[in-house]
Amino acid sequence: MIVASVDDTYCVNLRNENFLIRFAFHLKNLLVRLEHHIEITNLQFSGIKNDYPLIYAISVHISNIIYKFSGYVLPEDEIAYIALHVGVLMDENKALRDKVNAIIICPNYYSLGQKISKKLSSIYSENLLISNVLTSIRNDTDLYGVDLILSTEPIDTSIPIRHYILNPFVTETDIRNIFTIVDDIKSNKIKNIIRDKIMYFFHEDLFFTDKKFKNDVEAIETMCDIMISHQYVDTSYKEEIYAHEKISPSSYGNITIPHPLNNKAKSSVIAVSLNPEPISWGINQVNLVFMLSLKEEDRDLFSDIFEFITQILKDEHIFKKIMSIKTYDEFINSLVSFY
């Protein structure tokens, strides 16, 4: 149930045998602690929540499933322990997902291509996945998902995939150049996704700089009512936001990203409020509110959007720039410029 729900809501795959065994033991001990009212103290709680907000948000979702199953409301220290388990697996999955997928083309010398593959795989083990070694690219060659073509001879420039011509015996120059290309491809992957989606998620009528909210309740009431009145979300949206906040406030440092516990909303939008005077939200004082709504078909974008928001705002220069913004156009132009 937990694995399927996390996949359905966040498009995060927890189906890993080692993880499932470890997590099953953790859940067994967790239920024993809850049944006997044994409290724990997780000294890493605030650091986990603020430094890894996406992992923490998924852990809040899991805690809600446990509540529905057992009737126990998990304290935030227990949610943080769940986050430790989820975080280890997500780091492994992210490392694999973020690798640049490359193929090697080495005409007439397949064995040499294999040697090149072995050498490059050992050098770029953390960033490069060599998925195939070919002697040529034909019309029927499957290039779906390929980010980079490494070839010992010139290739057809009409192929719309980044390519690099390397020495058959891989020189130090090749190694440096490939490092640069791989880093560039990795950084551009998420940039392209976000850049394409900025105008899709953000709307001028959901951008606020003049709402002097005193606390989280006032912000939730006002922003939800506007989203409902503009028919971006249905009337149950506010209830779902409060359900999430009841389990654990959605504030991470000086930002907050309130969102429902499922991604089955009427439309995919992000309402934004910039607040020079901080709002009390849980134990934090927040200046930026990003209220998120996602349709089920856009759930695969949740991780990218969530990480985009939290990562750019960890940069103090970007944070100050956003806080000085007065208009929607300035805001959109700034988001685009960051990428």
Fold and architecture overview:
With 339 residues, this protein is an alpha/beta fold. 51% of the residues lie in helices and 16% in strands. The protein contains twelve helices and nine strands. It has helices at residues 2-10, 17-35, 45-51, 53-70, 76-97, 110-123, 172-201, 216-229, 237-247, 302-312, 316-323, 328-338, and strands spanning 100-105, 128-134, 148-151, 162-165, 202-208, 251-252, 255-256, 269-281, 284-293. The chain has a five-stranded mixed β-sheet. The two termini are 37 Å apart. The mean pLDDT is 89.
Got a strand count? 9
Radius of gyration, CA atoms, in whole angstroms: 23 Å
Mean pLDDT: 89
Q: Going across the major beta sheet, what is the strand order? A: 5-8-9-7-6
- Uncertain stretches: none
Structural class: alpha/beta
